[in-house]
Specification:
Elements: H1 4-12, E1 31-32, E2 35-36, H2 40-51, H3 73-76, H4 90-107, H5 114-121, H6 146-163, H7 200-205, E3 220-223, E4 229-231, E5 236-243, E6 265-270, E7 276-285, E8 292-293, E9 298-302, E10 312-318, E11 324-325, H8 327-337
Antiparallel strand pairs: 1-2, 3-10, 4-9, 5-6, 5-8, 6-7, 7-9, 7-10, 10-11
């Protein structure tokens, strides 16, 4: 995107830049939704790939944007004594870009998924803002919405992160950012108080999945692709989060489960009746501990973390006295009748 960096550059004019991060060896790892990610060079490489194809000398047509990161002359601001970005050597362009990236990450708690959006339009819209799905400045040649650009950027980031060299002593798996990253959406509520746990069209395509029994205790497993948006069935407060980004079996927990966590990445929401709603096996959460969430609000992206044999959502319901309840009758009624069942008490026989 030729206009993307101009926006972020304009936003940051007048900001005191941080020291260049590439001067003294590898910088510390960045963070994706609170999960360890790759080095800053992966972020810079992603920007270069999308902005210029990695060409440090390119000049945009009909614009002053130039160089690998497509800095406008006004946002380049004679950095390093060079009038234009394309006049500067690669290491100078990298240093300028690294400072901007560092500033974005500092302002957004290390969330790398904020980088492409701010790089593209100069700001991070609210989660429910229509700006996410509006093409910015189409007269400048833009054809993607910020959400589409972010998804494309994160896909390239994931590709580069996967192929990046690893240290001699790897720290474990890295959970990749989901499409749409840590910024969740929402789905339509049912009666204003309830919601389906995922996209209705996916459930409509296989409604029998709602009645699938769990393997050994009251709960529900929904087999779905990784990075399916997961929504809160019921409103409440996030009282627990789990951030173990590994798969149980890939991590060797079948042999030694020390330090392993069955839920993987997940969370528990307590509603106003004291009922606990637990969701497990995601890739990323879109809410934080202590947040108040509404029914239908996206709370995470599905995945295969924790004790999981295939990508799926695990949902448990516990009443205030600790009794497990079967989610299946509730979900079937919400889907089929548009309302919850008259009663859920005694609904515990939904397993083999």
């Amino acid at each position: 995107m030729k206009a993307g960096l101009g926006a972020v550059g304009a936003m940051l004019i007048g900001v005191t830049m941080l020291p260049a991060l590439l001067a003294n060896g590898d910088p510390p790892p960045l963070t994706v939704c609170g999960i360890e990610a790759g080095p800053i060079e992966v972020v810079l490489g992603t920007i270069r790939a999308l902005e210029s194809g990695g060409d440090y000398t390119v000049q945009a047509r009909g614009s002053t944007a130039s160089g690998a990161y497509q800095f406008l002359d006004s946002s380049w601001d004679d950095y390093g004594g060079y009038q234009r970005a394309a006049d500067a050597p690669p290491e100078t362009q990298d240093a300028k870009a690294a400072e901007l990236v560092a500033h974005i990450l500092e302002q957004h708690d290390g969330d790398v998924s904020a980088v492409p959006v701010i790089w593209y339009i100069g700001r991070l819209p609210a989660a429910d803002s229509p700006a996410w799905d509006t093409v910015p400045y189409p007269e400048a040649g833009n054809v993607l919405t910020p959400r589409e650009y972010q998804a494309r950027w994160l896909a390239k980031y994931d590709e580069l992160l996967t192929s990046a060299p690893t240290s001699a002593e790897p720290t474990g798996e890295v959970t990749r950012p989901a499409p749409g990253s840590c910024f969740g959406g929402s789905t339509a509520t049912i009666g204003g108080e309830w919601a389906l746990p995922g996209p209705r069209e996916m459930i409509d395509a296989n409604p029998s999945a709602l009645s699938a029994p769990h393997h050994d205790y009251p709960a529900w497993d929904w087999i779905i692709p990784t990075n399916t948006p997961i929504y809160a069935v019921r409103s409440g407060t996030v009282t627990a989060v789990r951030q173990w980004p590994h798969n149980w079996w890939a991590k060797g927990c079948g042999t030694d489960s020390t330090g392993c966590q069955t839920c993987g990445i997940g969370l528990t929401i307590v509603d106003n009746n004291g009922t606990r709603w637990t969701y497990c096996h995601g890739t990323n959460l879109t809410v934080s501990l202590g947040d108040t969430v509404a029914a239908g609000q996206q709370i995470m992206w599905s995945g295969n973390t924790g004790r999981s044999g295939t990508p799926h959502l695990h949902l448990e319901i516990r009443t205030v006295d600790g009794q497990r309840q079967c989610p299946q009758p509730l979900l079937e009624s919400l889907h089929r009748n548009g309302q919850r069942p008259n009663a859920m008490s005694g609904s515990t026989h939904c397993f083999f």
